Amino acid sequence: MKKTALVTGILGQDGPYLAKLLLEKDYKVYGLIRRYSNPTFENPEYLGVHDQIEYVDGDLTDESSLINVVKTTRPDEVYNLAAQSFVGASWQQAKLTTEVNALGVLSLLNAIKFFSPTSKFYQASTSEMFGLSNDDGYQDEDTPFHPRSPYGISKVYAYWMTVNFRESYNMFTCNGILFNHESPLRGIQFVTRKITDGVAKIKLGLADDIHLGDLDPKRDWGFAGDYVEAMYLMLQKEEPGDYVIATGQTHSVQDFVEAAFTAVGISDWKKHVKLDPRFQRPAEVPHLRGRVEKSQARLGWKPKVTFEELVKMMVKADIERLEKKEH
Ligand code: F7E
């Protein structure tokens, strides 16, 4: 019998990468989608997995829809990747962010508990939960949380609810505490894609500059395609657990900018970058860097794509996209 997986957030960045991995392992993949008037399947199409996913209707803010989906699919594994995931928007839409990212997880866990209690559950937790907690400059599974945004706060709730269902009901639930992970499928409002799309446009003569909020924040950036493997590995373990997934290296936004301009042979990046207060956040997370000893030792997981390779991959994909559009 084929293994089955239900993936929420199937139209985002990670969903299609995870679906590709699971399909290669011969899973049947159900992808949860919200009722859009105009759904865009661009990301699953980009990875060539659109036709192999069975889409099911449901919304994290509607518990009855989740019950219906869990009851009818009874998946072996549930990967909850759906979220209002843009930190910057979470101040303006704090309640929506909480309803989707926090209460939505409670509803999904309840649906599993009552209608498919043996399903293994993966929760997309995040380094944004650490926020200001820097310890010795690294964060790991034991670092205390100090979230800095409504987004980070909503994810702390979901993290603990995931732990609590494990401890209270003996369910197989895991948190993957993923640090920033990027790819050509990254949404355009996130800083990496904003930069690579901007650099591609400047290179092709379609724009003059990129407006950014801040060049100083440091992030531990990895490749989304590598990170979905860690999600899968967590659910294959004998025992459930919580794992930090990161590269262990940190770079500033400015480092990313420089690398992206270098990738297209432009050395004078300062001419093209404007600081714009509209993109600053009310409270910033200054520095993130994950310590990955636990996931390397217990999952045997290691990132493969380096920072430089990631930047080049994204710039190249954006140039190709724009060239395709032009012709
Ligand atoms: O910002 C700074 C910004 O929006 C990165 C999400 O996947 O990763 C992501 O959250 C940094 C921040 O991602 C601009 O202030 C400067 O310090 O790409 P981002 P994020 O907020 O780190 C975590 C792990 C998640 O869980 C989230 O869902 O870049 N920054 N200037 C800017 N950021 C944006 N977006 N735009 C700017 O102009």
Commentary on this structure:
With 327 residues, the protein is α/β, with parallel strands linked by helices. It has two domains: 4-181 and 222-245, NAD(P)-binding Rossmann-like Domain (Rossmann fold, 3-Layer(aba) Sandwich), CATH 3.40.50.720; 187-220 and 250-287 and 306-326, UDP-galactose 4-epimerase, domain 1 (Alpha-Beta Complex), CATH 3.90.25.10. Helices cover 41% and strands 15% of the residues. It is built from ten helices and 13 strands. It has helices spanning 14-24, 42-46, 63-73, 94-115, 150-169, 191-203, 224-236, 253-263, 293-299, 307-326; strands at residues 4-8, 28-33, 54-57, 77-80, 120-126, 173-178, 181-182, 210-212, 218-219, 222-223, 242-245, 251-252, 273-275. The strands form four sheets. It has a seven-stranded parallel β-sheet, with helices on both faces. Strand 4 (77-80), helix 4 and strand 5 (120-126) form a beta-alpha-beta unit. The longest helix has 22 residues, at 94-115. The N and C termini lie far apart (46 Å). The relative contact order is 0.13. The mean pLDDT is 97.
- CATH fold name of the largest domain: Rossmann fold
Q: Considering DSSP H and I runs of 4 or more, what fraction of the residues is helical? A: 40-55%
**Shape estimate:** globular
Specify the structural class: alpha/beta
Count structural domains.
Answer: 2
Whole-number radius of gyration?
Answer: 19 Å
> What small-molecule ligands were found?
ligand F7E
Name the strands of the widest sheet in spatial order. 3-2-1-4-5-6-11
Order of helices and strands: EHEHEHEHEHEEHEEEHEEHEHH
